[in-house]
Specification:
Layout: E1 6-14, E2 58-65, E3 70-76, H1 78-93, H2 101-111, H3 119-139, H4 144-147, E4 155-161, H5 165-170, E5 175-179, H6 187-205, E6 210-214, H7 221-235, E7 239-241, H8 249-258, E8 264-267, H9 273-282, E9 288-289, H10 298-311, E10 315-316, H11 322-329, E11 338-341, E12 358-359, E13 368-370, E14 382-383
Parallel strand pairs: 4-5, 4-11, 5-6, 6-7, 7-8, 8-9, 9-10
Antiparallel strand pairs: 1-2, 2-3, 4-13, 12-14
The protein binds magnesium ion.
Magnesium ion binds next to loops.
């Protein structure tokens, strides 16, 4: 079979809800006084948009092959990501065979090492990598999960992230993860309010439903330890997520030693590449790693991260990212469940995570998704043609 080559790569931005899922309208649960590393400044405490959590916008990468097939992906990256794709990465992509995914990844990563390694550059490399997997799978007329070895179970099961774990339980999810609202700067009163909300949710959800707290890098070891102790013993908190800044591997190792036996420490959504996750795994920082496939280096790097975690006996439960995660999770034994990020304003409706940017995006039904819901070629989604794509650096 003669493989098509890559004719052109194009990078676009989009504003509003979608891959940059923090770019929501007023009153959305995801911007409601959530604890952050910026919450020590009272003027940035009320809203994450106030300090610019939504400044980047969505990056859309579109890759066209010589036979006319087009693969695409969305991630967070906006204009900065477009600049990197069009001015730097395109040279490693255009003219290559559609099967050259490993070589392209290696060239993109090594050529950007002098200013990359993490952050926006890895978001961008991830977006290109996801678009390459989408393109190859479409050329082969197979779903991406088939290229990854195929499903190891008949369906995915999900926990739900959002402000309403009580509804998540009624909707069939295996657990509910709440955002933490108050950080250390809000003192004892804030800590009490964090525990009260957890207590109310435990009351509403009954004794066996998983409840988790997502702390979005906002705590210190001492505060996180106190929260974990009471939250576990009084309310059965299953895990404490991303309690500390991502660079504080030493703090995570200490926190993991401090939390009650049986409670899990999770992190990794703002970590990137096999080297970042190697630090988390070898230093004993956590029980579950949570790479975001749109930020950690794409599917190509997630395969390596996941194998490393498997060798350490750790679970990989990717952060958000909808179909880009689902196609991976269903092929891995050490990814026994997935996250569903509830993007409805009140966290009370089941809506596609990247709505309105993607069409045909599947959602859980009764907290589950059949493997057959992922059987369309590529990642099985289309870019919504109604949206106003902007290409800031055309070539
Ligand atoms: Mg999180």
């Amino acid at each position: 079979m003669s493989m098509p080559t890559i004719r052109h790569v194009r990078a676009f931005t989009l504003r509003g809800a979608g891959a940059d899922y923090h770019d929501q309208g007023a009153g959305h649960w995801i911007d409601d006084h959530i604890a952050t590393p910026m919450a020590k400044y009272p003027e940035y405490r009320r809203s994450r948009q106030s300090f610019g959590i939504n400044v980047l916008g969505t990056l859309v990468v579109e890759i066209e092959a010589s036979d006319g097939t087009v693969g695409f992906a969305v991630t967070t990256g906006g204009e900065l990501g477009c600049w990197i794709v069009e001015n730097h990465l395109a040279r490693f992509i255009e003219g290559q065979k559609v099967t050259d995914i490993e070589k392209i990844w290696d060239q993109m990563f090594n050529a950007t090492l002098y200013y990359g390694r993490k952050g926006i550059v890895l978001n961008t490399i991830s977006g290109v990598d996801l678009a390459l997997w989408d393109l190859l799978a479409k050329v082969r007329k197979e779903p991406v999960h088939a290229l990854l070895g195929g499903p190891v179970r008949d369906e995915l099961q999900f926990y739900m992230t959002g402000a309403r774990p009580d509804l998540a339980r009624k909707q069939g999810f295996i657990g509910g993860k709440l955002p933490l609202h108050h950080g250390p700067a809000e003192g004892e009163a804030g800590l009490r309010r964090n525990l009260e909300l957890l207590g109310q949710m435990r009351e509403a959800c009954g004794p066996d439903f998983w409840l988790m707290y997502d702390c979005w890098m906002s705590l210190d070891v001492e505060y996180a330890t106190r929260l974990a102790q009471v939250a576990y013993h009084d309310f059965g908190l299953k895990w404490i997520e991303e309690a500390l800044p991502p660079d504080d591997y030493w703090g995570y190792a200490e926190l993991r030693r401090n939390v009650p036996r049986g409670m899990l420490v999770t992190t990794g959504e703002h970590e990137a590449t096999r080297w970042g996750f190697r630090m988390l795994l070898e230093m004993g920082c956590c029980d579950i790693i949570q790479p975001d496939v749109g930020w950690c280096g794409g599917i190509t790097e997630l395969i390596r991260i996941s194998a490393l975690a498997d060798a350490h006996g750790k679970l990989v439960v990717p952060h958000g990212s909808s179909v880009y995660s689902y196609h991976f999770v269903i092929t891995r034994h050490n990814s026994p469940f997935a996250e569903f990020l509830n993007m409805s304003p009140g966290a009370d409706q089941i809506v596609p995570m990247f709505d309105p940017q993607l069409l045909d995006e599947p959602v859980p039904v009764n907290g589950r998704m059949k493997a057959s819901a992922l059987d369309a070629p590529g990642f099985g989604v289309r870019l919504n043609p109604e949206l106003p794509l902007h290409r800031p650096f055309p070539r």
